[in-house]
Design a protein that fits this description.
The structure is a homodimer. The first copy, chain A, contains 10 helices and no strands. The first copy, chain A, is mainly alpha-helical. The longest helix of chain A is centred in the middle third of the chain and has 24 residues. In chain A, 37% of the residues are buried. Chains A and B meet through α8, α9 and α10 of A and α8, α9 and α10 of B.
Amino acid sequence: MARWQPRARERLERAALALFVERGYDATTVNDIAERAGLTKSTFFRQFADKREVLSSGQDILIDLFRNAIAHAPPSATAVDCLAAALESAGPLFTPERHELALQRRVVVALNSELQERELLKRARLAAVIADALRERGVDDMAAHLAAEMGVLAFSTAFARWGNPGNRAPFTTIVLTTLAEFQTRAKMLSDKV
Amino acid sequence: MARWQPRARERLERAALALFVERGYDATTVNDIAERAGLTKSTFFRQFADKREVLSSGQDILIDLFRNAIAHAPPSATAVDCLAAALESAGPLFTPERHELALQRRVVVALNSELQERELLKRARLAAVIADALRERGVDDMAAHLAAEMGVLAFSTAFARWGNPGNRAPFTTIVLTTLAEFQTRAKMLSDKV
């Protein structure tokens, strides 16, 4: 078998998520995943460190995109403008072909407390990256942290909305609308419910 | 030795933190902690499930206080008023005698990545509790989540400030000031830096 497999990563990811849904995350082995994808175990390990990493696919790319978008936002950009630029930059990762994976992912994570913990840690890492990037633009520490939490909330809310079978708008549209909704809330927290 | 030891919990907590700072968290055993406190291992296990739990001491009490304060805030209270009530209700936990423990705690956690992960999970749990309590008052889902993140940021920032040897103001004063500072930031996120 050739060492290089076209689209091996995506095939493995699809096979893994399908199996996680069918058999449960814990009961699925790397062997199962490779077999379902029609690839070898060593091909799997060239793409992922372990089965858990399949669910973190794209996290590093996302972090780079966010960091870059915030660093290169125009000098006149406000903190929210920077968040919008970051979230918008992630759009190309969320192609229509990935809708199904997002839904499967949600089901798998919802059923496994260890995976839920990993999600929380990933969220925290994302927030830290956004806060750092904002601080480097001169946003003060407290505002940077608060904005970062709002950015992560907008991202995760939008991701859930986008993964929803009833919602077929592009991710970019969804995420910018979601951010604007949080922005309104931020201004209203001191208002009467 | 009597089964019941006065202030056993606090003595164990102080012994544990002192040892974690001196020898490192990983190198300290439950035996070491009990010995330093002048208590038995079985007394330790009547108070804590394991040494990690020593560092989560008070988390459940904090959660109950937050939940209660938000539930019983006056009907006219805004989301930020509810956060203020929650944070203020935690004041009695942070007595002057605990200053030193807060500082030791920070040192220990800063040196151990596993403990940092636990801290992030505790923060997430606290945010979830606040968001739930606000939702039960009729705050909409997005506002509840955003307010909860702001509350947790205010709490953790205030805890760090209070633990700082240079700051001897009461926790309640510090946390309400910190919350007000975040509240100002929330309104300004859309303004030019």
